[in-house]
Structures are given as C-alpha cells and as structure tokens.
Amino acid sequence: MTEEKKIIIDEDWKSKVRAEKESFEKESENPQPQADVPHDPPMPPASLEMLLTTLATEAMMALGQIPHPTMGKMLFQPNQAKFLIDTIGVIKEKTSGNLTTAETQAIDDLIHQLRMVYVAGPPETVPAPDEPAGEAASSIEVPGTN
Fold it and tell me: Which residue pairs from 72-76 have beta carbons closer than 8 angstroms and sit at least 24 positions apart in sequence?
C-alpha cells in the first residue's frame, strides 16, 4: 500500500499577496497628493517670467542689494552676479524671435537695470576689499576680505 503524501498549501498568503498587489496597482493609477514637506513649499507654474524673476533675484543677492534668505546677510559677489546677468542675456539671445514684444522689452529692461547695479559696484555699506569693515558694514560681507 502506498501512502499518498498530503501537501498542505496555505491559501491565506496567496490572498494577502493578491490584495497587496491590487492595492499597489490602484495607488499607482490614482496617486495620492503628497503631504506638504516643511522645507519644500509648493511652486508656481514654470514660465519665462518665473525663470527671469528667479535669476534676477539671485543676481540682486549677489550684488548686495538684498540679504541672502538663509544667511540673513548681504553679500557682494560680482562674479556670481555677472554669471547670472550673462545667463539672462543668453536666454534673450536663444529666445530671439520667439518672444512677444512685451517679453522682449521686459528682458531688455531687466538686463539694463541689473547691469547698471553691477557697474555701480557694492552698496555704500559694503567696504572696499582693502578697507577694514566698519560698524555700518557689519551686516554685509565681501567674499575674500575676511
């Protein structure tokens, strides 16, 4: 007499795997909006105006016109400022013929204004690189002078 071996299959784990797979497929089809991350605020839609505003703001920080948002200090970084102004110039050059008259005028005005601030040099409260920092200049740093 031969004995038949009984194989017992745990059907429960199969149903769990099937349920997890279905759940995953539903989530991937309808992704849930992510919760707000504290240091990752929502961003506006990408546009030419937003790109130019971002670059101009960075240039103004590099020119010592507005304080750096995380450091709270005003810095004069002419190389950084020149790079950012030149980048806006490249955008103007590469988009030539594809912009409205208003967009072209806005870029021209922006480049002109930033160049005027650049050639004016550091704000009066920023000491020249060879002068010691006075009381009025304590909140503005010129890299390479310390």
Answer: 73/139, 73/140, 73/141, 74/123, 74/125, 74/126, 74/139, 74/140, 74/141, 75/140, 75/141, 75/142, 75/143, 76/122, 76/123, 76/126, 76/140, 76/141, 76/142, 76/143
| pLDDT digits 0-9 by tens, 24-60 | 777 666 655 555 667 888 888 999 999 999 999 999 9
Q: Which of 113, 144, 139 is nearest to 126 (CA)?
A: 139
The candidate with the shortest Cα–Cα distance to 143, out of 133, 132, 129, 131, is: 129
Distance in angstroms (rounded) separating the CA atoms of residues 67 and 140: 8
| Confidence label for 22 from pLDDT (cuts 50, 70 and 90) | confident
Measured in degrees and rounded to the nearest 5, phi and psi for residue 118 equal -60, -50
Cα Rg of the chain (Å, integer) = 29
Strand, helix or coil at 109?
helix
DSSP H helices in the chain? 11-29, 48-62, 78-94, 101-120
Name the one residue in this structure whose structure tokens are 């550091």.
Answer: 122
